[in-house]
Each structure stands twice: as C-alpha cells, then as structure tokens.
C-alpha cells in the first residue's frame, strides 16, 4: 500500500529531451505529409476540374455537332419528302389523264363495232369486204390495242404511286425519329451544372435497345434518300412515258378514224354513182319496154288487119274450084288470087316477130325487176353507210388528255 502511494519514477533529462525532439520531429513529419497531401489534392482537384470541364466541353461540342448532323439529314429528308409528295401529286394528275383517255376510247370502239354489225345488214352483192370494212376492222383493232396499252400503263402508274407513298412513309418515319432525336439533343444541350432537373441515375450507363453505329445511322437515312430519289426518277420517267403514250395513241386513233371516215365518204360516193347509173339504165329499160309494147301492139294490129283479105282470097279460090268443065281455067284471075294468097300468107308468116318481141318484152321486164332490186340494195347500203354509220360517227371525238 505504501508502495502504491509512492512517487512515480523519474525520467532522465536526456530522455525528456529525446521525447521532445521526437514529438517535434513527428509533428513536422506529419505536417509535411499533410502539406504534400494538400498539394496533391489541390493538384488533383485542378486536374479533375480541367478534365471534367474539358470532357464536358467536348461532349457539348459533340452534342452540337450531332445536332447539326441531325439537322442536315432532317433537311435532306424534308427536301426529298417535299419532292416525292409533289411528284406523287403530279403523277396522280397523269393517272387522271390516263383514266379519262381510257374512258374516251370506249365509245369510239362501240361505234366501230356497231358500224360493223350494221354493215352486216347490207344485201346481195353489196355485202362485200370493201375498204370500209377493212378499215373498220383495223380501227377496232387500234382501239382495242390502245385500251390494252392504257390499262397496262394505268396499272404501272398505280404501282408507282404505291411505291411513292411507301417511300413517303419511310421518309416521314425517319423524319419523325430525327425530330425526336433533335428534341432530346436540344434538351441535352440546354443542360448545365446548375440546371434544376439534373440528377443522379445509376442506370444511365446500362445499354438498352439496339444501338447502331454512326455509319449505320448515316447509311439508314442515306438509303432512304437514295430510294426516294430512285422512285422520283422512276416517276419522272413514267410521266414522260405517259405523255408519249397519250400523244401517240391519240394521233393513231385520230388518224385511223379519219381513214375510216374517208373510206366511208368514198364508198358512199361510189355507191351513189352506181345507183345513178342503175337508175339511168332503169329509165332506159322502162322507155324501151314502152317502145316494145307499142311494137307488139302494132304487130298484133297488122296481123288482125290481114285476116279479112286472106279470108276473101281463100274464099274466092275455094269458090272458083267449082267452075264446071273447061271453065276450070287457070286464068289471070286464078293466077292473081294464088299470088295474093301466097303474098298475104308470106306476110302473115313474117309476123312471127311478134313472139320474139314478146320474148324481148319479158326480158325487159326481168331486167327492170333486177335493176329495181339492185337499186333497192344500193339504197339500203346508202342508208346503212350514210345515215346509220356516218351520222353516228360524227359524235366520235379523239381528244388529247
């Protein structure tokens, strides 16, 4: 107990001096380390500040560059979209022209077919495969060929319009994505270190969705523009083709239509000339018939006029046969009566011309009937060609669309 309450041990002055020196040395060392740490920390702070500022500045520049790239492609896509929309609208007007042209071909084709049917009603020798018939058949073929060509071209036009609209859709979708991307990057560009809505997001580095390379990104829009340009060029070429087809088909149809009309006019004139000749012949036959009828009447009268004298002569001769004996003399009277009977009989026999005249009259009657029938055939032909066909063809109008 007494030991515990005794005085603590005393250190040697050298120990005290050493302890003080150690404290001083330790403190200086600690201070030196702290100063180095402070200097290192300041250097690190300066470095990280510069690095962070530089990195953020680089990112800001990249965002700005990206915004410019998006704006460039957005403008390219927008320009191409305007062109393809305009081209589609113009192509739609060409489609309307094709439809109108196609519709306008139907009536002339029907008229040509009706003309062919009407001309089947020609009678007799006039049912001939003449130039009009041949040109009408050719006209029908021309119109049918034009209709088939216009229908194929219309189908091609509808397909091109579909392709244009498909291209328009792809451009619009790309533009929509570009617009959204530009809005996002505009928002990113507006953010600063003092923006109120910035926050930590641990999941920001996680890759979500299908990222594409910058090259693929450029290729995607470039391909859309190239496809749109290709369809636009195809549409331009198709419009030029349609223009040529509409012009050429209208010219072909108009030319063939005029050829048919000319053939009709020539045929009508030809039939009218023949009809006029037949009517002239008919008038001649009628006149000749009247003359022959007068001739027959004169022949019959002449025969009738000879009946009295021949009866007298023959009665005298018969009576003189009964003279008696030597009185039955061949005297001058007998000779004269015999000569008279022979002369009258000979003259009567010459009247056999009556039968020939009557045969000629029958021939004239048959010829008159034949001419009248042929004139009716020509009148029927003229009615079909001039009234039914030519008047109906006056409504045919071949227009350029």
From TrEMBL:
Q: What is its main location?
A: cytoplasm
Record GO biological process = cilium assembly; cilium movement involved in cell motility
Offer a single GO CC term for the protein.
Answer: axoneme
Q: Which UniProt keywords apply?
A: Cell projection, Cilium, Coiled coil, Cytoplasm, Cytoskeleton, Flagellum
The record describes its quaternary structure and partners as:
Microtubule inner protein component of sperm flagellar doublet microtubules.
User: Where do the coiled-coil regions begin and end?
Assistant: 31-83, 347-381
Q: According to its UniProt record, which protein family does this protein belong to?
A: Belongs to the tektin family.
Q: Which organism does this record belong to? A: Turnix velox
The protein depicted here goes by the name Tektin
Keyword S-adenosyl-L-methionine, does the record have it?
Answer: no
